User: What shape does this take?
Amino acid sequence: MTSRPKIFLLSPANCSGKRAGYLLGGSPGSPLAMRLRSGGAPLGEVFTYMSALYFRGKLAYAGAFAQPSADWDGVQVIVPGRGLCPASTIVGIDDLREVATVEVDLADERYTTPLRRDACRLARSLGKDGTVVLLGSVATPKYLAPLGDVLGKRLRYPAAFVGLGDMSRGSLMLRCAAEGRELEYVQPS
Assistant: This one.
């Protein structure tokens, strides 16, 4: 464990998109869908399937540069309705169906309440020395508002994200993880 933890928060995959529909549909279809129905699969793998390049990039990048604390895994996923969960958390089909019912919307307390709860726990655990890096959209308040209120100056995001679309961010993070090159982080304004 490091004395200066760096925890990455990964924005969620779209649980109502086409690829999520393949997993949530009635027939097992893919090996991942079968695993979801018979014991589960890691959250990071499930969201990577649903989001493809973007989430795969976030997961690889966070895994390469996270510095976990004694209390927190270094790679946390924002999960609608559940707050922050380690990417290694095993989820089943019922879990995924439940998550899909919660909108990533500041007006939905089912989204904001667990996220703020876990952000408060994270803030207390990290103290003043820890850094939290958001790997997700910074163009809308849906992540920054609930997290920034709680984490304050500890919250950062990659400066290179500004002006890039999801696919460009995903490929950038994959390249950086492969090269061992960490991006510069800035505080939300």
